[in-house]
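Homework help board

Subject: predicted structure for assignment chain

Our instructor gave us this sequence and asked us to write out the predicted structure in token form, then describe one feature. I got the tokens but I'm not sure how to describe them. Can anyone check?
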Amino acid sequence: MRKWIFMICMILPLSLAGCVSNEVESNAFPLAIGIAAEQDGGFHMYVAYPDLEDPDAAEDALSKDAYWDESLENLTEGTELMSKVSSRNVDMNHLKVLILDSRMLDGGTNADCLIQYFREEKDIAWNAYVLLADAEMEDLFSDEVQINACLGIYLEDLIEGWEDIKSGSLVTVGSLVSQYYNENETLLVPVAGIEESQPVVENFAAVSGLRVTGEQSMEEVFASHDSLILFEG
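My token output:
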């Protein structure tokens, strides 16, 4: 449902002529964000958003991504810097997926900075799904990925296609924030990799206290649950 609402919002303005179309194209609507911790400190943010300047965007605004990435000392700089460099207004309200490298969930400084970012970035969508990266982040946020949809939409559809998952149990940004205050809670976070130039999820990471504590295969997780719950107290 969220996908179709967003498609209507994107496609209708693009079908109009003149200043309305130009106004839409002056915005960036990130559907997927990747955040990695750099070894020497700081972070690297990756953003994929619908390429509204693509010639095919008027027919399908969600068929292709444009990308932006940058090293940051503070995550809260990301939106402002992206807006400045791209000359676009960045709107995080439509975010579909957040992809983290495992170093972000260290149970320490990186995790603290991540939660602070969510709390300070008032317009970010807390219902965006959370995944960990089992590939280099630049390989996920790349034109080399062969999918006929924006990365955020593709991964959202993939996760929501798991029939055995209980409604409302998928791990979201809000789930991570909740774990910051409820350390006894354990999350099973999907791990995204690349296979034959397509994003795939083949296992889950167990996260407790905002720290990765283990890993389970897709088969193990689904075999051990009659109706899968991805978080529990």
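Reply (TA_rk): Your tokens look well-formed. For the description, you could write something like this. Helices lie at 2-14, 19-25, 77-86, 109-120, 137-140, 151-160, 173-181, 218-223. That's the kind of observation they're looking for.
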